[in-house]
Write a structure and sequence with these properties.
199 residues; alpha/beta; 7-stranded mixed beta sheet; two-stranded parallel ribbon; 5 helices
Length: 199
C-alpha cells in the first residue's frame, strides 16, 4: 500500500460530481490533494480489492463516495444521525445509523484492512477507537481527519504512539490536518513531489 503524493495528485474525481446533489459540494470532491482528502481516499480504495472498508462519520457522504470508486470493495459507513445524504451512493456502500460502540458492532473494525474516521472532533471517540484497535492487536491502518482541528484533537494525536503515526496533511485535509496510524507497517508514505532535479 502506498500513499504517494505524485500519484494522488493525478487522480480525477470529476466523474463523481453528477452524484452530488448539493451544488456547493459538487466541486469539493475534486479539489486538489492537500486541500481535501477525497483523492487520498480514492487512491487507497483503488489499491485494495475485495476489502471491507469502515467509514466512521458519514455526514454528507462524500468520503464514502470517494471510497466507493473501487466497486470491488465493500464500504460500511456509520453516523450517529440519519440525516439526508448530500450525494447518491453506489451499491457497494452500506449505511448504518448509530455509534459503533453503542451498537455493539465494534468488532467489525478488526475485520477491516482500512478505517477512515471523521466524527465529533472532541478527541474522546477518536481515542476510544485508537485504544480499541491497539488493545485488540489490529493489523490494518486508520486515517483520522482533522487532527489539528482544535486542542482536543491535538491532545488526542499526541497520545498516539509516535512509532506508528504519520502526519499526512500534505495529501489530506490541508486546513485541519489528516493523520495515518499504521498498526502493521504496511503503508509506504511519500509526501514530497518528485521532480527531475531531485530524482
Amino acid at each position: 500500500m502506498k500513499i504517494n503524493i505524485n500519484e494522488i495528485k493525478e487522480i480525477d474525481l470529476s466523474h463523481l460530481i453528477d452524484k452530488i446533489s448539493r451544488d456547493d459540494m459538487k466541486p469539493v470532491i475534486n479539489y486538489d490533494a492537500g486541500v481535501t482528502h477525497y483523492k487520498l481516499l480514492s487512491s487507497i480504495s483503488k489499491q485494495l480489492n475485495d476489502t471491507l472498508i469502515i467509514d466512521l462519520g458519514t455526514h454528507h457522504g462524500l468520503s464514502c463516495l470517494a471510497l466507493s470508486t473501487n466497486p470491488k470493495n465493500k464500504i460500511i459507513s456509520y453516523d450517529v444521525t440519519s440525516h439526508k445524504f448530500g450525494c447518491e451512493l453506489p451499491n457497494n456502500v452500506e449505511r448504518r445509523v448509530g455509534n459503533i460502540f453503542d451498537l455493539k458492532q465494534e468488532s467489525i473494525l478488526l475485520e477491516s484492512n482500512f478505517i477512515f474516521l471523521d466524527t465529533a472532533h472532541n478527541g474522546n471517540f477518536e481515542l476510544k477507537v485508537y485504544e480499541y484497535l491497539r488493545d485488540n492487536k489490529y493489523k490494518g491502518f486508520i486515517i483520522y481527519d482533522d487532527i489539528h482541528f482544535n486542542q482536543s484533537m491535538k491532545n488526542f494525536w499526541n497520545k498516539v504512539d509516535d512509532n506508528i503515526k504519520t502526519d499526512i496533511t500534505r495529501v489530506g485535509q490541508g486546513d485541519t490536518g489528516t493523520g495515518l496510524i499504521d498498526f502493521n507497517n504496511i503503508v509506504e508514505v511519500k509526501l514530497y513531489e518528485e521532480t527531475w532535479w531531485n530524482e
